[in-house]
Amino acid sequence: MDKSYKIKKKIIDKVAKYTISIGGIGTIFAVLLVFFFLFYTVLPLFQKGDTKFQNKIVLKDKINPVHGIVDEYGVTGVIFDGKMIDVISLATGEILSKIPLDETLSTFNYNSKNRSYIFGTTDGRIIEADISFKREEMESDLEGTKNEDKFVVENDYLVEYKNGKKNTYKIDITTKELLKLNNRIILVDGIFQDRESSIVAITDDGLLHIIHIQIKENILTGENNKEIEDKSIDLKDYFKSGYPDYSKINSSGNGIFIFFKDGRFINIDARNLDDLKITEDKKILENRKITYLDFLIGRNTILIGDDKGYVTTWWLTEDKLNKNNYIFTNIHKFYTGSDSDVKFIYPSQRDKSFAVLNGDGIFSIFHMTSENLLFQSREEFKASLILMNQKNDKIFLISEDRYSSYSFNVPHPEVSLKTLFGRVQYELTSKGEYVWQSSSGSDDFEPKFSLIPLIFGTIKSTIIAMLFAIPIAILAAIYTSEFVNKKYRNSIKSTIEIMASLPSVVLGFLAGLIISPLVENVVLSLIGCLFMVPFSMLLLGNIIQILPKDLFNYLSRYRIFMILIFALPLGIFLGVNLARIAEKILFYNDFKYWLQNYEYSPLGGWFIVLTPLGLILTIYVYRRFLYGFYENILEGRSYNAAAVIEVIKFLVLTFFTILTTFLIAYIITKIGLDLRRDLPFIERIMGTYVQRNALIVGFVMGFAVIPIIYTVSEDALRAVPEHLRSASLATGATIWQTAVNIVLPVAASGIFSAIMIGFGRAIGETMIVLMAAGNTPIIDMNIFSGFRTLSANIAVELPEAVIGSTHYRILYLAALVLFIMTFIVNTIAELVRIRYRKKSSQL
Amino acid sequence: MSRFTRTNYKIYFKSKGEPMLWLTGGGMLVALLMIIFLIYFIVRNGIANFWPDPISYFETVQGEKFMGEVTKRERYVIQSSADKDEKVYGVRYLVRIGNFELTNEHFKWLKDSEIVKESKPKYAMVLERLEWGRFYGFPYKFKIGDEVIADNIDGILKNYDKYHDEMRRLWKQKVNIEKKQIGKLNHLIEKERLKYRKVELKLKKAKLSGDKGKISEIEKEYLIVKKDFERFMEWSKKEYDSYIDKIALLKNKYERYSITFKTADGREKDVKLFEIVRGYRGNDLSLMDKMGIYFDRWVEFLTDDPREANSEGGVFPAIFGTIVMTLLMSIFVVPFGVVAAIYMKEYAKSGKIISMLRIAINNLAGVPSIVYGVFGVGFFAYTVGASIDNIFYEAKLPNPTFGTGGILWASLTLALLTLPVVIVSTEEAINAVPNSLREGSYACGATKWQTIRYIVLPRAMPGIMTGFILAMSRGAGEVAPLMLVGAVKLAPEMPIDGLFPFVHLERSFMHLGFHIFDLGFQSQNSDAAIPMVYTTTLLLIIIVIVLNVVAIYIRNRLRKKFIGSIF
User: Fold this and answer.
1) Residue A48: CB atoms within 10 Å
2) Taking a contact as any Cβ pair under 8 Å apart, which residues of chain A between 554 and 573 contact chain B?
3) Which residues pair with residue A67 across a beta bridge?
4) Neighbouring residues of A629: CB distance < 8 A, sequence distance ≥ 6
5) Nearest-CA neighbor of A833 among A766, A761, A755?
6) Cα separation, A505 vs A140, whole angstroms
7) In sequence order, what DSSP letters do the residues of B483-520 get, joined into one string?
8) Is residue A679 within 8 Å of A685, Cβ to Cβ?
9) What pTM was computed for the model?
10) How far apart, in whole angstroms, are the C-alpha atoms of residue B272 and residue A486?
11) Helix intervals (H) in B182-315
12) What distance in Å separates the CA atoms of residue A344 and residue A358, rounded to the nearest whole number?
């Protein structure tokens, strides 16, 4: 042979080997890649983020910081010092201007939503100061600038040169007098909207004023008319020990909170301005003193800092005794790191987090809902304010003569394992809940990302689907593999296999648009058929035994046709008619109305639900106690007599099943349990009927997984070695006995793995659920309610999620959860299958 | 002996298990019946959809008069109360009344008890139009411009037959100009714009870096390109205007021809001739006419673009998208699947790698398809695609090119999804090649690769083909991942067209499965959409089932062929 050919041959061989190996191992990597990519996308959710010290700048003038605000970019700020407002360039440390306010200020409050201060004066005036930050962008000449970014102060404005642009930062402060009262103002607070505002003020005559200002436009003249409505309530008796230290009005203007430094709290219900009520007067802090207090973003939650270093959060929760009443309740408690007093709290303007500074100079950023500590550190100089910019990416600690800044970057503060998988008490709710609500129309909405309702929906639909699919698929597999003529076996199998390739979108369309409106009118008949079709099959199977032996043996060849012609129609007939009778007797003539009307007795519902239990009980009792009796009766009977006795036995057992079920249902009803509400743990099993519900999804999804379970378990049954069957038949066992006692036990693990594969498929099914489940993310055991699964949720929300956002990453987490769920199920199936293969190869 | 048989009846029936056999047999029967019924149901509804229905004219108790096609008839409960045992049922019809611009509804429920008069007028016409859905009415006048040409039925119909095709042709010419020629022009403009933008970006970068020499160099280039671009824009404007003129000319011609119709309640309505896609007198059709309309509708369905938010017209773009996507997917999945299977069966030595591979493949097979979609959009589109954009399509940013869902990413995602199908069936086929053949080949001095190439692979071909076809059928039917990686409701451009580079892998596409979902669940006029959903479903099922049957057929045939060659 040619030598060069030989070499060529070898080279080609080697190349092929390596290429193929790389390709082969590549597939393992493909799986790993899927997993790691999901994991990699999810991971940042749980990372702490990084927060770094940036710089420390000494102010060129001394100030006396009491409160302050920083602009969106964190380059300029205003500091209120009790008498005047200082405008500071945080980029350079210069004080740009000082704006003097009225000399007679007696109190102030800050409203973060409008970025305005509200002041009260000693002579009874209420003044609002609006602060607005502006950035003017100018394209500066491309030629002149180089890659040099800098801040300079020009004409009392801070100017930034960046990327060839010139940005000027301007701060406008406009003050206006809102109204005037007759007495010195002790405390004042207000909420401002476009045309309406509410102001609450306490004056030194012991009155609490609630002033409602409405600006009405005259349609004819276009002039604005200011309407002022002043309501007041006398609180002199409450102020005997001194005037309060804080007063706040919540976002809706219907709750007014008054606090005293020693921990006393007064709650005023202002839902009806003409009937102001004092609903609570209590001590909310024991042995602790309030040192600072503010609203969280949205003005619903009060953050109270005390002298022992704790910040507690409070909001109004529903009174359990009187639903119309609200109680000021403590929800969370945060420790600021040392026992020193809380000096300042700055609520973030972006989410439900807040920054706290305490007397030891320890400052911390917490997120309220997730209770995450986002960052904690200590500043050595004695800072008196902690401020953050609007974007939440800079922290400033400000003292009299210097300030330091930190870059703050925690991209997903609202996420913790607890918010994803645990009960979370969201703002203004009275108890912890599992909620999925990713978006909403309102501004200060907090997204709620609990995966539990989605996981619940996934499991709910899977279980119902499997309850429906497993019996049919396995019965069908047993019959095809053991009792069908070989000639037809393959075509039956291929027909069912074609079903497996049917796109699930087709099933989803049918389920959502055709089946669900149809079923809505015949729910009870459908449930009736579920019970009566198998029953009629068993019944006719018994009755046919009465026929003469030869005829019976001859007929059993045409069993399938007899089932088709007699048993199935009989079952449907019985199902529909029994359902009609049951509806009349047990469900007060209208099943769907019965589902919602708790005055009706739950007996009928219990009867449906408990039938399987009754059946199991009857079979158990029969096997355990009555079997000997039954054998005795049969002793020495002729063929025909024995057949009749079989039928009677079947009917008696049926009767007993019904009786047992009825008894149990009756007892449970008498105990007072109602399956439509207030069950322990599961709340309810049935309830209001929704057109697209779990039962329908269960049916259709069962339909989708039947072919898979069927095919794999039929394969497993077929794989049982033929010699086992032959041996069993040779010893005189019937085909049925062989099937049940020999074939089934050998193939059991294969069937189990078939079920697991079906399970995995049902967990991840998307289109059917998306189109037929109504997609409401609720936790409800009611089989007639809608739900949302992990997969449908991804399909609905991922196209709208912003890349890299918390929502986006949580949807990836949902995918990861699905991946892991199916990974576990598939691996179990695979392990069982390997064991099964080993076992059957030994036989 | 007789005693023996007699006592045996004690367990005779139990051992025969007849009732249980009925139950298991029933299980099989139910599974089979459900499948048969489902397919029958879809086929029946899908096929019947295009058959022209007669037009019924109704007068109601309330004095309303309307006309339309009865699409559904159902029983409903008139009253049911807890006191009375009997429920009273009535019959109601769903009538497609069309004339949306006049009535503001496409469909109307009509109770049996409300009907005073019902007839099937001979001259009533159904029009399928470009806009506003169907129209039902009596022809009244035929007009060219404002001039009435005919005002009797026969004259109108004669003129309709005379001018309709011509007007449609002119209209199609106009659409052609809009779509093809102006489309091409837009394509050119975009190309030139990108060229210009690229230099602009380059200049900006250079300026930031501050390298004087480089700046002046690029500036020169910039000025040239800018001039070119301006000149081009001038030219394109002229070109565009000339197209507009052409269109205006055509419009002038075809918009003059119209028919005035009278609706059932006597209102008059002008319908332009070119707007009528298809018009016929529903109650005056011979069987042949009906067949003609039926097949014409099928042809339209298979070859035309959708109209009316997809609820009318054809699904050609969806068919085309499905085919292109599936073929692309096959190009990716088949080589990889086959290579992986060969590796497992012929190369991998250690048992550990094999079992790891097996677990990997089984998990790939079991992972929900939506997870692939999530992976596909995150990895392919947002990671790989975004990087491609950054490197090659910077000028187009922030509009993504590859950095969003598209046909390439969709087919790659589905390739990953169908990989196990190909691997498993190839593996099976390789397994079936007897070892004696391999040994014979080695004995002749062939290398491993030669043995695989000339002995194993040819015999495994049926298995590979089966895997290939099964993968295609899976790919054609899968929707969930496509929703995330690029299937859209209405794709403005096809993934393959006559403009360079002909195959546009970055484009989004339409898909039959997604079309079903979208039509059934996102459509505003869902009553009108449902028949189309049935037909689309039928089409999809036919594609999938045919692919499956072909796969099974090839498998069986080739299996038989090769069984003979084993020695």
Assistant:
1) 12
2) 556, 559-560, 563-564, 567-568
3) A80
4) none
5) A755
6) 57
7) HHHTB-S--SS-SB-SSTTSB-TTS-B--HHHHHHHHH
8) yes
9) 0.89
10) 65
11) 182-209, 212-254, 287-303
12) 7
Smallest CA–CA separation between A232 and chain B, in Å?
54
| pLDDT tens by residue, A134-156 | 888 877 654 444 556 788 888 78
Question: What's the pLDDT tens digit per position in A621-641?
Answer: 998 888 888 888 888 788 888
Tell me the nearest-neighbour CA distance from B189 into chain A, angstroms. Answer: 28
Sheet with A353-358: strands ordered across = A342-347, A353-358, A362-367, A372-378
Chain A closest CA to B376's CA: distance in Å? 9
CA separation for the pair A707, A476 (Å, rounded): 10
Rg (CA), chain B: 32
Which neighbouring-strand residues pair with A179? A126
Report strand pairing: A95-100 vs A105-111: unpaired
Plot region of A183 (φ>0 → left; ψ -120 to 50 → alpha; else → beta): beta
Q: Check CB contact under 8 Å for A642 and B13.
A: yes
Helix (H/G/I), strand (E/B), else coil: A589: coil
Task: Output the six-digit token pair for B442.
Answer: 């080695």
In sequence order, the β-bridge partners of residue A197 are A192, A213
Asked whether residue B558 carries a pLDDT value surpassing 70, the answer given is: no
Contacting residues of B for A807, CB less than 8 Å apart: none
Q: Which residues from chain A sit within 8 angstroms of residue B520, using beta carbons? A: 509, 512-513, 771
pLDDT (0 to 100) of residue B81: 55
The pair of structure tokens assigned to B383 is: 């990671």
Q: What is the mean pLDDT of chain A?
A: 88
The pair phi, psi for residue A255, each rounded to 5°, is -125, 125
Disruptive mutation site among B354, B370, B470, B546 for chain A (greatest number of A CBs within 10 Å) = B370
Residue B175 contacts by C-beta under 8 Å, 6 or more apart in sequence? none
B135's enclosing H/E stretch is strand B134-144
| Amino acid code (one letter) for B407 | I
Asked if A798 and B484 touch (Cβ cutoff 8 Å), the reply is yes
CA nearest A406: which of A389, A426, A427, A382? A389
Model confidence at A529, pLDDT cuts 50, 70, 90, reads very high
Residues in B closer than 8 angstroms to A766, CB to CB, are 368-370, 479-480
Chain B interface test: which of A149, A506, A535 (most B C-beta within 10 Å): A506
Strands B134-144 and B147-150: antiparallel
Chain B CB contacts of A27 under 8 Å are 336, 340, 357, 360-361, 364, 419, 423
Query: Which of B82, B516, B541 lies nearest to residue A588, judging by beta carbons?
Result: B82
Q: The tokens of A817 are what?
A: 């959860």
Which residues in chain B are closer than 8 Å to A563, comparing Cβ atoms?
22, 25-26, 29
CB contact under 8 A, A9 and B450: yes
Give the integer Cα–Cα distance in Å for A588 and B80.
Answer: 12
User: Which of B29, B357, B371 shows the shortest C-beta gap to A815?
Assistant: B371
Q: Which residues pair with B496 in a beta bridge?
A: B503
Kindly give, in sequence order, each residue whose CB lies less than 8 Å from that of residue A813, ignoring residues fewer than 6 positions away.
A42, A45, A420, A451
Per-residue DSSP letter, B380 = I
In this prediction the ipTM stands at 0.87
Nearest to A21 among B347, B516, B521 (CB): B347
Chains A and B form CB pairs within 8 A to the count of 355
Q: Do A638 and B9 touch (CB under 8 A)?
A: yes
Other beta carbons within 10 Å of A15? 11
Question: Which one of A37, A534, A636 has the shortest CB-CB distance to B378?
Answer: A37
**In Å, what is the CA distance from B254 to each residue of B131, B146, B150, B177?**
16, 13, 18, 15
Contact A356, A367 (CB under 8 A): no
At B94, which amino acid appears? L
